[in-house]
């Protein structure tokens, strides 16, 4: 199947837009390889420090400087269910690498915070910036110049993006990402959602809610809904950074351990000494990033990746924006129904055919680039497979030709929807994204008076006081990265869902984020520029008529233009967000954070700092789509609806 013209056109404009920055990045990568990440560049004192505590046989390998040394960078902690299984992985990796002819060292740990624990709490205001902290932590782990490749242990929300950003800043090193897998299925996601709404309505008490939540989150592994954590795993597979089919194999099973060992051996093979040298900075290219966007769209993945993928791409000298997501969404079909876009969880999805089925369907439809580099070195079609154990060895077999359950997973010719359900909204309120794959068509357009809130706590107080039993658009402002770190506003979901179920026309408009599990209520999120960057959301007043039209792609305050321009920005009192729960430690991140559409990164990318880069670093504000470079894309969309 030839490449779909819209995918070809979007990828082409990404290449053109990124050309000077990608060239600078690749030049830096080549220089690093030429200089050598070789232990021979270290002094004898340096090297002796580096292996002082190593077992004697491993020390001999490092002294010879001829065999690969693999770094283990891990986000292990035993509070996060998804990361708790990683405590066993370093020993498995070390042994596998020894048998492959190298050595492995635990190079460093990174933070790993759980959004599920911090939702609605002050600690959530550290969450987005934990991604950049993780990237810097990975950089520290690799800074010793001891390693020839690295394996990365991470799964959840900001953790995988942070690890990958860190890896790309050491893009001359090969990288293999190793998941730990999802927990087994507990209480159904639909029942969990129903109970949360009952609690929000005051119809059940906290003990009943905690009992239900404990039945949902009950064991080691990722949460089983399709939020940011599991979206991460899907993207790592499609980007070719995982072994095929490894994302959703449950923890503490023989297959999981065998996959971990095989991934470690593959890291040896793709090192410079291993004969199949594959630096991650060349693996992640413009086509790989385009593939990741497609994978996100076709599975109804987390809206958080409209931020994270931008930051990941920039770390590799690649510039993408929300126009790219929007245009691809018009032609990428929705192939999965995983909660919150359906009833099933990721275990059900995996059993129905999983990642290999999705990749093959998209390749056959011309909606993925096959001619990319992966850790297998065989193009993306090699990832249309699933792993099995034969004795103690992993073997891969072709993914099934048919879905085992078309209520969960469908072929491209019979999708759940013809598009990916992610839309760009533009208008006098700025630029925003909305995910409508779980929003019923009758809620795609909401026009109602605004009620303005300065925090999600203000919203919840109004809800609990019975003041929101009417049609309205909740405008929740001062939630951007510069204001308070852009916490997810997940606490609003049950209340808004309950009001919508009661028959009210409701929507959310915010410069903040929603959970990766955002669902049935229309939500225009990541509104850019944020209010603290002089964004127009700060001009909205109670009673203004707001029109959110997901079909037309518009987000408007229906206010007289002269009146709109006269209005001053709302004053911000952010004193309550500055101190407490460690927030004062992150003041520098808030001060330097970029716009959401630019990845909300809190540090610069020196290898991109060419004279032309200034235009990338400016907020787009009310800007229209990039008409010159989008012309061929729009023509393709019209010709291939």
UniProtKB/TrEMBL annotation:
Entry protein name: Phosphogluconate dehydratase
GO MF term set: 4 iron, 4 sulfur cluster binding; metal ion binding; phosphogluconate dehydratase activity
Annotated EC: 4.2.1.12
Record's cofactor remark: Binds 1 [4Fe-4S] cluster.
Signal sequence, renumbered to the chain: none
Gene: edd
HAMAP family in UniProt: Edd
Domain named Dihydroxy-acid/6-phosphogluconate dehydratase C-terminal: residues: 407-600
Positions of the UniProt region annotated as Disordered: 610-641
Pathway note: Carbohydrate metabolism; Entner-Doudoroff pathway
Job description of the protein: Catalyzes the dehydration of 6-phospho-D-gluconate to 2-dehydro-3-deoxy-6-phospho-D-gluconate.
